Amino acid sequence: MLMVLSCSGCQQKSMNQENSVHSFEAMLDALPQDVQAEEGIWVAQAPDESLRLIWSKNFAQNNDLDFAFEIKMDPFLAVGMEIPNFPQALIKNDFLRIGLAFSPRDSIKKGDLSPIQSYEEIAEYENARVYFDESTNRFVFDLGGGNRLEWAKDLSSSEEDLLFVLNADNFLKGEIDLDNLEGWKLVEEERKIVNLPPKTDESKTMEDTIATTDEYAQYGTQEYLEPDIVENGETVSPGETGAQKPAGTVLRKILVKSFNLK
Q: Residues 6 or more apart from 131 whose CB is under 8 A from it?
């Protein structure tokens, strides 16, 4: 199955982007609390108030994070977590913040933007990070480093409508009992990758290369340089930066917190 990615700078929205915006709006409407405005950002509370999804009102401005989720640290501290070595994380007001800051760009839309218009801007300009996973029938926003947000395309036919996914490797460096982490499931996922193109420039993303498989799109924009490649049960070195990666399967542990919004 092929996945068509929009080229960088294209103004015409793809069907994937349009559907992403509509389903994102439906997901927000299904949350118990309305989206709130804070200084420079929109905030959506998870149903149990243990997480907050945040995104910039206008990412033409300089922001510390433009799309992220904030996680209450209490459950992690209770199982022995110390401040992890997260390149994308910030500790702020007892929240662990995981997300991305994008390069400032001039906004197409002028004036005040609604929460959906702000997301639409991000989805359009960072289109390589947003994709549809047909195996789960969910949209995914790739936050890099194995972290992502997922939400159902159709809330009426899904059992898990909103998922926050963390790369568990970031927590496994210390003596942390992730099996007893309140509210989160520790699972192992398998990601198949097929003939990944070489990456010779750290600034490149999926839209800068030819992606011919949904497996490459699902795997993300950068992280394929980090984990080991497993073939026939044996670990194969991922090789030098820019080298052609062999076909294989990536195994990694993730932490998942999911919500049914119906």
A: 3, 5, 16, 139, 140, 142, 214, 217, 218
